[in-house]
Structures are given as C-alpha cells and as structure tokens.
Hints:
- The structure holds 2 protein chains of 2 kinds.
- Chain A has 2 domains: 4-44, Arc Repressor Mutant, subunit A (Orthogonal Bundle), CATH 1.10.10; 60-142, Alpha-Beta Plaits, CATH 3.30.70.920.
- In chain A, 33% of the residues lie in helices and 21% in strands.
- Chain A has helices at 4-15, 21-28, 32-44, 81-89, 115-126, and strands at residues 65-73, 94-99, 106-112, 132-140, 145-146, 149-150.
- In chain B, 42% of the residues lie in helices and 13% in strands.
- Chain B contains 13 helices and 12 strands.
- In chain B, strand 5 (163-168), helix 8 (181-193) and strand 6 form a beta-alpha-beta unit.
- Chain B starts with 6 loop residues before the first helix and ends with a helix.
- In chain B, helix 3 packs across helix 10 (269-281), helix 4 runs parallel beside helix 10 (269-281) and helix 5 runs parallel beside helix 6.
Amino acid sequence: MLTEDDRRLLHLLSQDCRLTPEEISIQTGLTPDYINKKTKQWEKDKVILKYSVLVNYEQLEEDRVTAQIDLKVAPQRGQGYDKIAQRFQKFPEIKSVYLMSGDFDLSLLVEGKNMHGIAQFVSDKLSPLDFIETTSTRFILRRYKQDGIEFFGEEERPKRLMITP
Amino acid sequence: MKNYLSPLASGLKPSGIRKFFDLASTMEDVISLGVGEPDFATPWVMRESAIFAIEQGQTMYTSNAGLIELRRELSKYMAKHQGLNYSPDNELLITVGASEAIDLAFRTLISPGDAVLIPDPSFVSYGGCAELAGAEVRYVPLRAEHDFRLQVEDLQMAYTPNCKLLVLSYPNNPTGAIMNRDDLLPIARFVSENDLIVISDEIYSDLTFEGEHTAFANLPYMRNRTLHVHGFSKAYAMTGWRIGYVAGHEDIIQVMTRIHQYTIMCAPIMAQIAALEGLKSGESAKKDMVMEYDRRRRIMVNGLRQMGLTCFEPLGAFYVFPDITATGLSSEEFAEELLKEEKIAVVPGNAFGPAGEGHIRCSYAYSTEQLKEALNRMARFVSKRI
Ligand SMILES: Cc1ncc(COP(=O)(O)O)c(C=O)c1O
C-alpha cells in the first residue's frame, strides 16, 4: 500500500518529472534524502519505468500516424496470451500491447510514418502469424486528450477580478 | 440626494479592499496575489450536471429552503464528514453564498442595543453586515504571537454585557490560521458562560492542511448555540454560482428562512443542482485541488521566509499572512510600493481590520509558475529594504 506521502510524491513526479528533489521537498515537506531514496527504489523495482515527455506531433506537422489493431488470437499449447503478447512487444513499431476483455483478445497501438507504412507492417509481420484469427485495424485521426492532457481547446484560466475579499 | 440616505446605510465604510482594487485595476501585467477565490474552474462533473439541468428545462424556483434533494444529501454529507447532525427538513437552509447566510444570521439575531464580537483581522463582510443589522461591533484582536488563534483573554477584554453574538471564522481569511479542538474548547466555555450565540463561518474547512478540521458545533453544548455557516465557493471552486448554506437550531433557521423567503425566494436552481452533484461525485476533484493548494502553500511559505520575512505557517484556507514590519513600511505602503515597483498586487493586512497592520495577505490560488515569478519579484523588492 502506498502511504499518503508516497502517493503525493508519485503524483508530483508524474505531473512534472523535472522537479528536483529539493523543489519537491519544499512542495511536500518530505526531505530531499527521502525523496532520493524513494525514487531510486522505485526505479529499481520498476515502479518508475521512465521519465518521459508527452509530444503533440500534430503541432509540428510531422507525419505520424497511429493505428489501433485489435487481434483475436488462438493461444497454442504452451503459448498463453502472455507468450504471444511478449512476441508483439519486441516490435519497435508497436507502442502498446494490451490484453482485452470483449470480442478481441489483444489490442495494439502501432505507430508509423503513414498509413501505408502501417499497412505494410500489418501484412508483413502480423498477418502471416498463424495464431492470429482475425484483425481489425482502425486509424487514430486526431488526439484530443492523452494521459490526462488536453491537446486542443482553450486552456481554462477563468478571468478573475484583480482583488477580491 | 445624500440627505435621502439612511444613516445606517450611508454610514457603511467602503471595504478596505476597494481602494486597492481601483489602483491595481489601472495597471497592466500585474500578477495579483490579491484574489480570494480559487483559480480552478468548477470541476467538470458539476458544470456538466448544471448544463444538463438547463437542457432539461430545470429553470424554476425551488422551495425556499432549497431543493430537498440537496438538503438531504448535504445532511448526510455533514454527518459523514463533519460529524454534524442536522435535519434536512427544518435545520438547514440553502443560501446565496455563505455571504447571505452571514447577513441573515445578524438580521435574525440582533435586537437594538445588542453587540457582536468580531475577530480582527477577519473577512470584511462581518462588520458591515452586523452594523447594517443595527449591532454594536466590538472587535477582538487576533495576535501573531498566538498564530492568530482567538484567545479567551482577548475575548474577555472586548466583552461587554450587551454582547450577544460571537463570529468565529476558522480556517481564517486573511491569516490562514486554524484552530483545533483544544484551541476551541476554552472559547466554547466562554460562550456558555456568557450565554452567546456563535456564527461559525467554516467555509474553508476542507482546506485544512494538518490534522482534522473541528466543527465548532461539535464541541460540548455548542450545537444549539452555533449557526454553522458554510458553502461551496471555496472547496468546490464555485464562487460564481453563489451557493452557501447554514445549519442550526430549528427556531433560528426557520426565522432565517422566512427572511430569505421575502428577500431572495431561493438560491438559483442550476447552481443547487451543480452543488448536489458536487456532494455526490465531486470528492476526488476536491481532494486533488486541496493537494495542489497544499503544494503551493509550501512554496509560498518557503519563498517568503527565504526573503527574510517572518511568516507563521498557515494551515488552512489559501492565504499566507507574512509580517512585513522588517521592511519599515506600513501594510498599505508595502502593498502600494510593491504594486508600483514590481507589479505584484497583495492586500494590505489592515484592510481586514486594524490588527492586520504590519502584515499583507497573499493568496496562493495561483499556478506554481505565477507564484514563483511573484516570489522572485517580491524578493527583489524586499531585499532593497531589509
Ligand atoms: C471567510 C469567508 N466567508 C465567506 C465568504 C463568502 O463566500 P460565498 O461565496 O459563499 O458568499 C468568503 C469569501 O471570500 C470568505 O473568505
């Protein structure tokens, strides 16, 4: 179980991983020592996997498309879903792999330069795999919100009076 | 037309904040730490529920005391979170902000010749509303050496036998002070001994950053002596919706409801619906905001202390109240020069009463970037003077 302090620490780091232990210390009352020790431990335990940046590529007019590919698979003897999923996660083009409830079994997020590239990837790498029964590929057209961050729309900073009681 | 005015009304002094507001409003690129309201917009679940209500045509009056669904939910909420038990049928009134509840309380309880004990410094409306109701106002100083917690000795000093009401306001605006159970017990004894009624404005209770908030009505024998005033403005970031509430003994609440019936009819229905949604599903959004305030609070206290100002640790609301006497300036001079020199607006402590002199109120309902920039500019300003 996370303590309230640790929950706060994780929350702050996931909001802004550039905060230094000293800054976090000011903002939480935890000591820099504790913060250092805790984050190191989390890194070691693979609780913190990566400190990353969320990029809005559309703003850069970069060519980049993402497809969500849902797969129905037939696990083979000695090859459960985990085995199959591990096989997929080796492809660098595949950014996310999820085991799903519902009509499909696995869901992949695949990134490429364009639709053609992704189609190529599907036909070259996925289709030949004999444990795949059916696939459904849908392209993401626009990203409105990801990881809690809104990509478009006006930031909400309501206008307040300059001084109020 | 001046001679047509009622002496009581025309005798009302403009709030000390007004003058500063006028000055700050003429300037550009000001970072204002002078705002007494959240910088967050109301949580989306609540806004969405009001939009839906409007689409459904919920645009009518509600019962005078407020939607019964809201009063029921509120009654449950108060029992669960504050240990307070009030009947939704006759002990709860939904008002147009805590502001209306404060006004109604004085009008309901004050008879000619009565006096009211009001802490100094404190929220600007208490004195004005009490005077309008015809009360004699007796200010009780709050002292920095006691972390602005009200002391019985000071109450005794201000007390006269015609005192009937005491206003309590913790967590406090403008100081950020809180009072815990042990701090409040002697006050409760004083209230019993002198047969007082307490208007306890606990609108910032959810913004308590250390320990649990103690509702004054929960102290021994205080339930029937207390009007528990609260509202959605601060913790739910709902200032513009104007929803507050007051809970207390049926005999008092019923008369307050009667005045409210003649003057207001009812609080706006869409705002009541949004508030109801807040009680049902706004808890996590509220907690997130409280966590964010706590983080900003620590940044502010740290920053102010680093520039060499004495700053007691505020444990509630969203204000810090540093002592600026080390600069050799009065509160007003400090605020005025800071505004002109560094374009930072703060509110001079004496705008909340003479005992606020020597302090300024800085709100931290701002983004951390704004706060850091404001602290940098203030540090530059202060370093030239101490
Ligand atoms: C201590 C205190 N009480 C009451 C109010 C008024 O709140 P409402 O918006 O509910 O009228 C304020 C607002 O600044 C306040 O600071």
